[in-house]
Design goal:
about 525 residues, alpha+beta, six-stranded mixed beta sheet, about 30% helix, binds adenosine-5'-diphosphate, binds magnesium ion
Length: about 525
């Protein structure tokens, strides 16, 4: 039987693992490292680099080096988040015909799904080289708060690189699985995941092999990059004050400052001060200018305290949804590189009144959990009987005057389904439109639009007479499916679906076909 790999596709770093003798093991990348930068770069020679090699030349090739694409996956170009990110990115963003965001470089544009597929393809290659065998199946993780578009886009990315996704699983749930498998201890765990771009908090109960996710919450625009940007702004402002020069528009300088800032931030998790040294960062008519500054842990903390504070209301909401208070939490599992920052650890410890678990590798535990999940699917993990995860967003439909009616509440255990009866409001009405949304706002327009489902071919009848049962379903991957049945005939009712975002199945195929052609003549045969 061919191997199934577990993939943590991170904003900044990705990791791949598999299950060996019932235990998860991380697969090293081609450079022998356990994690791979989620970076893709296109060189002037027309070469494509992924991971460490791509990151290494980011400074000299900033416009064609794509990082943090996970923040763009499944997003609209016009969304405030994308517009905000845009100003900070050295590479370009443009709008797709359907309003989605596209990555642009070198007069080309690619979907975030395609960029992600290049990272996944690299991880697949690493695994294949490790096993010396083909790999085609995977379990892939996503942040718990990812909506339907973001999940579907991640799945499409895997498909583009030839990976069949057996299950999409939430990152914190995966971390909980890997942790629970190793300790076998019962109780309620809080998984606090602060990575490069996103924050998730998940509460889960572990009881004799049953993993029951109680609630989840998060912020898709809060992560280590925001901490880096605070240092960048601090350096740029200071440089402007001292020299009158604005580095904010100099992409090359900004890329160097960003790298130095991230490095300084990492160091300050272990030391109390560090020096940022960037010679020849700019120049004016008279001479070259340099940045040379000492950054202390105290200054970093004051620059970023509000970012850490932003996690608190999310934790409180997750507790409230699970009807728990901080003392009810038995274990705290820290995930994500940014949790190495002492201020983050302290905030979480103070909040819950207990220290986090030691001996968890925050960079690897999610991929390990994905590998455990693959084992559960194949019956290779005997200790775990059942995993009950939840949906992080309410699912509902638009009603009159921009209203929103919730059909499936957030934190409902998945898979789940709900059926609602629809009818017509006019005589001889042949179509009924159902606008499906995800989110918590009472206003339809403030939630994420998933798709418009149109029930078509309704037989002419007086208003209110036709009865069509529409079933809304969230499957084990957290993906939304809608189906409809005619109550009278019991037969499947025809629906036309207009998704608000993402690639159509035919577009995924088209991309795969064009990639196949690109590889044509290499002598490789299916
Ligand atoms: P993701 O899963 O989102 O890719 P990771 O879990 O890999 O994220 O975390 C990456 C983030 O963690 C980056 O912002 C990185 O700068 C930060 N990070 C890594 N090591 C440290 C450290 N020692 N101190 C503070 N932040 C760190
Ligand atoms: Mg992560």
């Amino acid at each position: 039987m061919s191997r199934v790999i577990g993939i943590d596709l991170g904003t900044t770093y990705s990791c791949v693992a598999y299950l060996e003798g019932g235990q998860p093991v991380v697969i090293p990348n081609l450079e022998g490292l356990p994690t791979t930068p989620s970076v893709v770069s296109f060189t002037s020679a027309g070469e494509r680099l992924v991971g460490t090699l791509a990151l290494r030349q980011a400074i000299t090739n900033p416009r064609n080096t794509i990082f943090a694409v996970k923040r763009l996956v499944g997003q609209k170009f016009a969304s405030p988040e994308v517009q905000k990110a845009r100003g900070k990115l050295p590479y370009g963003l443009v709008e797709a015909p359907n309003g989605d965001v596209l990555v642009s470089f070198d007069s080309k544009s690619l979907t975030p799904q395609e960029i992600s597929s290049m990272i996944l393809g690299y991880l697949k290659t690493c695994a294949e080289s490790f096993f010396n065998d083909k790999v085609s199946d995977c379990v892939i993780t996503v942040p718990a708060h990812f909506n339907d578009h973001q999940r579907q886009a991640t799945k499409d990315a895997a498909q583009i690189c030839g990976l069949n996704v057996q299950r999409v699983i939430n990152e914190p749930t995966a971390a909980g699985l890997a942790y629970g498998l190793n300790t076998g201890s019962n109780g309620v765990a809080a998984v606090f995941d602060l990575g490069g771009g996103t924050f998730d908090i998940t509460l889960l109960e572990i009881q004799d092999g049953v993993f029951n996710v109680l609630s989840t919450n998060g912020d898709s625009y809060l992560g280590g990059e925001d901490f880096d940007n605070r240092i960048v702004d601090w350096l740029v402002d200071d440089f402007h004050r001292e020299t009158g020069l604005d580095l904010g528009t100099d992409k090359l300088a900004l890329q160097r400052i960003k790298e130095a800032s991230e490095k300084a931030k990492r160091e300050l998790s272990f030391t109390t001060e560090t020096e940022i040294n960037l010679p020849f960062i700019s120049s004016d008519k008279s001479d070259s200018k340099h940045i040379r500054k000492t950054l202390t842990r105290g200054t970093l903390e004051s620059l970023t305290a509000d970012l850490v504070d932003k996690t608190v209301p999310r934790i409180e909401q997750a507790l409230a949804d699970a009807q728990l208070t901080p003392p009810a939490i038995d274990r705290i599992i820290l995930v994500g590189g940014q949790t190495r920052m002492p201020m983050v650890k302290k905030k979480v410890s103070d909040f819950f009144g207990r220290p986090p678990e030691e001996q968890i590798n925050p960079d690897e535990i999610v991929a390990m959990g994905a590998a455990v999940q693959s084992g559960i699917l194949h019956g290779d993990v005997r200790e775990l009987v059942l995993l009950l995860d939840v949906t992080s967003h309410s699912l509902g439909i638009e009603t009159e005057n921009d209203g929103y009616e919730v059909v499936i509440e957030r934190n409902a255990t998945i898979p789940t389904r709900k059926t609602k009866a629809f009818t017509t409001v006019e005589n001889n009405q042949r179509r009924v439109k159902i606008h499906v949304l995800q989110g918590e706002s009472p206003l339809a327009s403030l939630n994420v639009s998933l798709a418009v489902f149109e029930l078509v071919g309704i037989e002419p009848a007086p208003a209110g007479v036709p009865q069509i049962d529409v079933t809304f379903e969230i499957n084990a991957d957290g993906l939304v499916q809608v189906s409809a049945a005619d109550v009278e005939t019991g037969s499947q009712h025809k629906i036309e679906i207009r998704p608000s975002s993402g690639l159509m199945a035919s577009e995924v195929k088209e991309i795969m076909r064009s990639l196949g052609e690109g590889h044509g003549g290499s002598g490789e045969d299916g």
